[in-house]
Amino acid sequence: MPPPQEDRSLPLADPHPTPLSLSIIIPMLNEAAGIQATLTRLQLLRASGVELIVVDGGSTDASVALAAPLADTVLKSEPGRARQMNLGAQNARGLALLFLHADTRLPPDKEQRAVTNLQQAVAQHAWGRFDIQLAGKSRWLPVVASLMNLRSRLSGIATGDQGIFVRRDTFFALGGFPDQPLMEDIELSKRLKAHSSPACLRQKVISSGRRWDEFGAWPTIRLMWRLRYRYWRGVSATQLAKEYRDAR
C-alpha cells in the first residue's frame, strides 16, 4: 500500500524570478563545524552568478552567523529538511535548483564543470542527481557508495546525499518536497521519475560518511534498508523517523 498522499500545493513566492542559471539550496541544523568550509568552496560559483541560499532549521550554535557572509540569502525555517528546502526553493531565483546537504560538496576543483553538466542534464531530463563518494574512516564506505550509485541508477530513485537537481518549474508543478520528516527525497524522486527519467551524472559529489563511522557501516546499512522497505510497505514517514531517532 503506498504512503498517504501529501498536499502538493506549494506557493511560489515570485512567479517572475530574475533569470539565473542555478540556485543552490542548502538546509542546515547545527553545522557550525563545517558550514564555512562548505560555502567557501562555492564562492567561485557564486561570483559567476550562481545563487547560494542557506535555510536554517533552528540551529543553537553559530551556524547562521558563520553562513551569513558567504551566502546570498540565509533564511530561518521551522525544523524539518523538507520544509527548509521548500522555503529555499520559494525564495530562489534560479531556473534550476540544486539541493545540497550541508555536509556534501561538489566535485573538488571541478565545480564549474559539474554545474555545466547539471544545466545540460536539466535541459534534457528536467531532473537528476550526481554519483556519490563517501568521506570517512570506515573501509566500507567505498562499497556503500558504489551500492548507492548502482541502486539509484537501476531504480531511478535518488537520495538527498547525491545532490538532487531539478528544473524550478517542474519542482513547483509537482508540489516540491512532501512535508514529512523522513524519506522526503525518496518521495520527490518517485514523483519526478513519473514525470521523466533522471539524469544520473557520473561526476561524484563528496558527502560525509559520519553516520556510518559513528554507528558502524553494517548496522547503518541494515537500518537504512529496513526503513526503506517499511516505507515501501506503507509505514508512515513519521513512524519511521521515530524509529530512526531511537535507533541512533
Automatic annotation (TrEMBL):
InterPro entries: Glyco_trans_2-like, Nucleotide-diphossugar_trans, Trfase_2_rSAM/seldom_assoc. Gene3D superfamilies: Spore Coat Polysaccharide Biosynthesis Protein SpsA, Chain A (3.90.550.10). Residues 23-143 form the Glycosyltransferase 2-like domain. Its main location: membrane. Signal peptide: none annotated. It is found in: Cell membrane. The keyword Cell membrane applies. Keywords: Cell membrane, Glycosyltransferase, Membrane, Transferase. Coiled coil: none annotated. It holds the Pfam family Glycos_transf_2. PANTHER family: GLYCOSYLTRANSFERASE, GLYCOSYLTRANSFERASE 2-LIKE DOMAIN-CONTAINING PROTEIN. This is Glycosyltransferase. It comes from Vreelandella piezotolerans.
